UniProtKB/TrEMBL annotation:
All residue ranges annotated as the Adenosine/AMP deaminase N-terminal domain in the record: 9-83
Domain of life the protein comes from: Eukaryota
Pfam families reported in the protein's UniProt record: A_deaminase_N
InterPro entries membership: A_deaminase_N, Metal_Hydrolase
Stated name of the protein: Adenosine/AMP deaminase N-terminal domain-containing protein
Gene3D superfamilies reported for this sequence: Metal-dependent hydrolases
Species annotation: Trichogramma brassicae
Gene Ontology CC: extracellular space
Amino acid sequence: MVGSLIVDPYLKERDRLIEAEQKLQFGHDIVLEGDEIKANECLMRAKTAELDHAFQHPEDFLPAQNFLRARKEIEQSTVFRILRRMPKGGLFHAHGLAILSVDKLLRYTHLPNLWICRSGFAFLFSRARPPPPLLSHSCDDWVPIEERRRAEPNLDQEIKRHLMLSSSRNDDINHVWKDFNKLFPAVGGLAIYK
């Protein structure tokens, strides 16, 4: 009797908090139907199996690993394969500038009217020499990319290196985040054209 006087209010309050938290989740108000229910059950079974395995073997938990090193394993996971088959790949969040592959961006560097900063890796499409400095770029010395390519035979490899996060260094989240944020000015000049 005494136990239920203490436990029952606790359980009711716990249930209330869980319900309130669930209402904060993305898609909490979506009602699944038919095949959606079956697909969700399949996904949740795979997700639960991966989480159960992670509790027994935390070192295998892919979301906790360096993405650049774990990417191939993530792509082979059951959950990822299910998400990949769904409309939009189950995508909830992506940086628009990070969607293009590095190889696609590198191909853009061979398009006409592309300027590159003489001393860095900022890019800008323009029919005429860009005036220094533009608001979105700190570069004050633009050259046609063909000119810099002639002077630097390995420029494509350098550009590619500057458009990618390296998996060989900086496991520290602060370094990774700093490097990640450096990518967007370079990518933006290639992917955004007004």
